[in-house]
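Batch manifest, entry 17 of 40.
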Amino acid sequence: MRTLFSLFLISIFSILNAQIELSKPYTLMGSRFDITIVAKDSVEAQKNIDLAVKEITRIENLLSEWQPQTPVSQINNFAGIQPVKVPVELINLTKTAIYFSKITNGAFDISIAAMDKIWKFDGSMKSMPTANEIKNSVRNVGYKNIIINEKENTIFLRNKGMKIGFGSIGKAYAAEKAKELLLKNGVKSGIINAAGDISTWGKQINGKDWLIGVQNPFEPDGIEEVLKMNANAVVTSGSYEKYAEIEGKRFSHIINPKTGIPSSGLVSVTIVGPDATTANGISTSIMVLGLEKGKKLLKIFPKYRSIIIDDKGKVFKNKY
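Output type: structure tokens
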């Protein structure tokens, strides 16, 4: 009788603690976002997904360089004219971007948004731009001309024609902010997948870690490693889907802001660590820096591990 009563209590406990896992795709920030939430029921899950969407939309309205009313668009519109007062959040994110510019000697630079579009990555490009075209393309690029006044909360682009854009880290930042908000609202488990910039917390409904596959285009099944994730982020920068191939050499869509020439030599850089924004700054930088300088950069971030694949298919990994 005691056994039956115990089973009854376990059954009631299971019902009271039943959970569901709900995943929904959205088009946000011009890309696909997949938001997965573990909750007690579909109503609560959808409520929290809506909360995440609202937060990501807020970030888009802060960072978009395409919407004319955003702070970033205003900064760009007044380049070379006057400083623009902006939210502290944008000041801080810009400082993060400039930090990566400094430690990579300009390999990472949000002012690359002003670069002339002389490269095409749709398969139509068959020859290199001229040396003069390449040189002129980066004439308005240079992070040292991004002037932050923290006392006045302003950002000023020193030269006319300059622009900043957060395409490199914006979606990863949005994923982190959405995760942060959901955690504050008591959501114990989920994934924000921002077009491949992924932030996770908690565990799957079955109690196991989230599983994230790292792509390797040289492997028959396309997978290099399956990561177990529960409270960290993973991002990948790569050239295996979007690139130009000229005279047998592959050029990534990730361009060196200093030279105006696309990065080459590496096919993908995956970074795993506590924060998606930082991970994305590292991965983008290494794509430009190359393997050896990238290894040196990783030493600054001991909490982050990497999976780097070069254009010959060789894989380089470091652990925490």
